[in-house]
Design goal:
The complex is a heterodimer.
Chain A (H helix, E strand, L loop, with lengths): L4 E12 L2 E12 L3 E5 L6 H8 L7 E6 L2 E2 L5 H7 L1 E3 L12 H8 L8 H6 L2 H20 L15 H13 L5 E5 L7 H18 L2 E5 L3 H7 L2 E6 L2 E7 H5 L2 H8 L1 H6 L1
Parallel strand pairs in A: 3-8, 3-9, 6-7, 7-8
Antiparallel strand pairs in A: 1-2, 1-4, 4-5, 9-10
Helix pairs in contact in A: 3-6
Chain B lengths: L21 H20 L2 H26 L7 H19 L3 H20 L7 H25 L6 E2 L4 E2 L2 E2 L3 H23 L2 H11 L1 H6 L4 H27 L1 E2 L6 H14 L4 H25 L3 H4 L2 H19 L3 H15 L11
Antiparallel strand pairs in B: 1-4, 2-3
The chains are: A alpha/beta, B mainly alpha.
C-alpha cells in the first residue's frame, strides 16, 4: 500500500502502576482507511486509543500525526490537531440536548468568547446560526432528527452511541477513533451503524481506527485489522489474512480449536 | 410570532429567540409593567423586601452559573460578598471614593480572589473543592475583622449613600429601579452565556469533563473563567449590598449566608437561570413568611423566643424536602404546571420537549 500515512505509532508502551498494559506497539493508519483494532477483553485496545487521544501518556514510544509529534500533548490539543474520538459508554453530556451535545463538538471551530457570548452580539449570532446549520447536516446524516431537542439522559443506549459519533464528526476530524461503537446495540442499530461507518469511509473519507468486538462487522467492513493480545500486537494486515491467522484464532478461541482448524 | 402550539420555525436564527410566542410576550410585558408600577403602590416594607430580592439575585445567579452550569462547588460565596463589601468600605473610609471607583474595584477584587480560589478546581472536585473554597470565606472575614479593629470601627463601618452625578441614591424607589436595571442586565447576560459557546463548554465540563477535554475544550481555562466571572459578579453584589445597607460589619457575612445562597440555587433548581430567580424570591421571603404565619396562627409568646431556631430549622427542612422530592426545584414544579396547561387535555408531552 503506497497511500499516505496519517497516524504512526512507534513502539508505544504503557505502564500503569507497574502493570504492563501495552508492550511496544507499532502500527500505521493510512489515509482514508478503516482500520479495525481487535483483541480479546483486556488486550489494551481502549488503552491504545487513550494514548492516541492524550488521556493516557505512553511510557515509551512516539505517536505522529502526519509529521506532527503528538506524544505529550494534552487531550484538547490533540483534538485541535484533528483527531476526534468516541467513547465506549458514549459519555454524552447528560443534561444537555442532542443539539447542544453536537454543538459542543463544534467548540474548536467556533471563536466567540465570553463577553461576545454574554452580550449575544452579531458575531455570536452569526456563529450560532452557521454552526447550527452544520450540526443539522450531521443530524440528517445520522438520522437523529426526532431526538434533536431531547435530553441525552433519556435516550436509548444505541442512540446515545450514535450521538457520540455525531459529536466526534462535528469536529470535522481527519482521524476518528471509534471505541466499540456497536457495543450495546441491537441488530438493527448495528446495521445502521455499519451504514454510517461506510458512508464516513467512502463519502467523507475520514481515517478511522475502530475498536470492535463484533467479528462479523469487522470482517464485512474493515480494510485492515490490527490484533492485540495482552498488550502485544500479534497480527496486522488485510482483513481476510488476519482473520485466518492461526495466532489470531488461538487468541480468540484457544489452542485446541486452532490445531483442529 | 405565534401561539404555543402548532407553529413552525423556518430559520435557525428564529430558533435562537428567547421569547418565542405571542403569549409569552404578553406575559413578559405584564411582568415588566408590574415591576415598573410596583414601587408606586408598595409600602416601605415591601420595597425593602423587593430590594433585598434584587440584591440577592445577583449573587444567586453568579452561584448558579458557577455551580449549576459549570459544576464547580463553592462555599466561599459569603466570603466573596464580604470581599466586595469590605473593598467598598475601605475605599470609602480611607479615600472617600465614589461608587464609580468602588464598584469596579470590588469586581476586580472578586476576580482576583476568583482566580486564586479557582486554582484548586483544576485538581479537586466536588466536596474537596468546596472545602478549599471555604478557606476563602475565613480569610476574607479575618481580613475584614482585622480592618475593623485596627481602624477602630469595632461595631462596623458606616457608608454614605452613593451618588451618580447629581442623583443621590437614597430613596428606596431609586434603589429599586437601579437594582432592577442591573438585575435585568445580569439575567440577560447569563441567559445569553448559557445558550452559547461558553455556557455549553461549562455544562460539558460539568457533565463529563474527560469527554469535554477530548472535544477540544480547554477545561482549565473554562473552569477559571467561570470562577473569575462569577466571583467578580458576586463581589459587585457585595459592593451594592454595602451601599444599600449603609453599614458593613463582618457579622453579616456568616456561613449561614453561604448556605442561604446554596439554598437559593438548590430550591430554585440547579441548571436554570429561572430557577435562580424563583429560589432567590423564595429564600429571601421565607423568614418573613414564617413571621407572618406566627402572627396569623397566634403562636404563644413563650414560643416566639425560639423564632430564630425555628427559622433555621425550617430552612434546613425545606432544603431536604426539595433535595429528596423535587431535585429539579421550583423551576421543575413550574414546568410541570406550565406543561399541564399547554398540553391540556392531553397528559403527556411529546418526546423531546423539555
Amino acid at each position: 500500500m503506497d497511500k499516505a500515512i496519517d497516524l504512526t505509532l512507534d513502539g508505544i508502551s504503557l505502564n500503569i502502576s507497574g502493570l504492563e498494559i501495552l508492550n511496544f506497539i507499532s502500527m500505521r493508519a493510512y489515509k482514508g482507511e478503516l482500520l479495525a483494532l481487535i483483541g480479546p477483553n483486556g488486550a489494551g485496545k481502549t488503552s491504545l486509543l487513550n494514548c492516541i487521544s492524550g488521556i493516557y501518556h505512553a511510557t515509551r514510544g512516539q505517536i505522529r500525526f502526519k509529521d506532527r509529534e503528538l506524544s505529550g500533548l494534552k487531550p484538547h490539543e490533540i483534538a485541535q490537531v484533528g483527531i476526534a474520538r468516541t467513547f465506549q459508554h458514549a459519555e454524552l453530556f447528560r443534561h444537555m440536548t442532542v443539539l447542544d451535545n453536537l454543538l459542543v463538538g463544534r467548540h474548536i471551530k467556533m471563536n466567540a468568547a465570553l463577553l461576545s457570548n454574554g452580550f449575544f452580539w452579531g458575531k455570536t449570532i452569526e456563529e450560532e446560526v452557521a454552526h447550527r446549520e452544520l450540526v443539522e447536516e450531521i443530524i440528517d446524516f445520522l438520522e437523529l432528527e426526532k431526538y434533536r431537542k431531547s435530553n441525552a439522559l433519556g435516550l436509548p443506549y444505541g442512540i446515545q452511541k450514535i450521538v457520540g459519533l455525531g459529536r466526534a464528526l462535528a469536529m470535522e476530524p481527519q482521524v476518528l477513533l471509534l471505541d466499540e461503537p456497536s457495543a450495546g446495540m441491537n441488530r438493527q442499530e448495528k446495521e445502521d451503524l455499519a451504514r454510517f461507518i461506510l458512508r464516513i469511509r467512502y463519502e467523507i473519507g475520514i481515517t478511522m481506527i475502530w475498536v470492535e468486538h463484533d467479528m462479523q462487522l469487522v470482517g464485512d467492513l474493515a480494510d485492515r485489522i490490527v490484533v492485540l493480545n495482552f498488550g502485544n500486537k500479534i497480527s496486522e494486515g488485510k482483513t481476510d489474512e488476519v482473520l485466518n491467522d492461526p495466532q489470531v484464532i488461538e487468541a480468540y478461541l484457544g489452542i485446541k480449536a486452532s490445531a483442529k482448524g | 410570532m405565534a401561539f404555543a402550539s402548532g407553529y413552525f420555525k423556518t430559520t435557525y436564527k428564529s430558533d435562537l429567540a428567547i421569547v418565542e410566542t405571542f403569549s409569552l410576550w404578553i406575559c413578559l410585558i405584564i411582568l415588566t409593567l408590574g415591576l415598573i408600577f410596583f414601587p408606586f403602590f408598595a409600602s416601605a416594607f415591601l420595597m425593602d423586601l423587593a430590594n433585598q430580592v434584587f440584591l440577592a439575585l445577583i449573587g444567586a445567579i453568579a452561584l448558579m452559573l458557577l455551580t449549576g452550569y459549570a459544576g464547580q462547588f463553592s462555599l466561599g460565596h459569603a466570603g466573596l460578598i464580604a470581599a466586595g463589601a469590605f473593598t467598598t468600605a475601605i475605599l470609602f473610609k480611607e479615600l472617600n471614593a465614589p461608587i464609580w471607583v468602588t464598584l469596579p474595584t470590588s469586581g476586580l477584587t472578586g476576580a482576583i480572589l476568583g482566580i486564586t480560589f479557582g486554582l484548586p478546581s483544576l485538581r479537586l472536585k466536588g466536596l474537596y473543592l468546596a472545602l478549599s473554597t471555604l478557606a476563602l470565606h475565613f480569610i476574607v472575614i479575618y481580613i475584614g475583622a482585622e480592618y475593623e479593629t485596627q481602624r477602630g470601627f469595632a461595631t462596623g463601618v458606616v457608608i454614605d449613600s452613593p451618588s451618580i452625578g447629581p442623583f443621590l441614591i437614597e430613596d428606596p424607589r431609586l434603589w429599586y429601579f437601579s437594582l432592577l436595571i442591573i438585575d435585568i442586565l445580569v439575567v440577560i447576560f447569563s441567559i445569553n452565556l448559557v445558550r452559547s459557546r461558553t455556557g455549553r463548554a461549562w455544562m460539558a465540563i460539568r457533565d463529563r469533563d474527560v469527554a469535554a477535554e477530548a472535544l477540544g475544550i480547554k477545561v482549565a481555562s473554562y473552569k477559571l473563567s467561570a470562577f473569575v466571572l462569577t466571583s467578580a459578579l458576586t463581589s459587585i453584589a457585595g459592593c451594592l449590598f454595602a451601599y444599600y445597607r449603609g453599614f458593613v460589619s463582618v457579622e453579616a457575612f456568616s456561613l449561614h449566608m453561604t448556605i442561604e445562597y446554596l439554598a437559593m440555587i438548590i430550591i430554585g433548581g440547579l441548571g436554570s437561570i429561572l430557577g435562580a430567580i424563583f429560589g432567590t424570591i423564595f429564600v429571601v421571603l421565607l423568614p418573613y413568611i414564617i413571621d407572618a404565619l406566627v402572627d396569623i396562627l397566634h403562636v404563644p409568646t413563650r414560643l416566639t423566643t425560639y423564632m430564630f431556631a425555628i427559622k433555621y430549622s425550617a430552612f434546613g427542612l425545606i432544603m431536604i424536602i426539595f433535595l429528596v422530592f423535587e431535585p429539579s426545584g421550583l423551576v421543575g414544579i413550574w414546568h410541570r404546571i406550565r406543561d399541564y396547561f399547554i398540553l391540556w387535555p392531553f397528559k403527556h408531552k411529546p418526546l423531546g420537549e423539555r
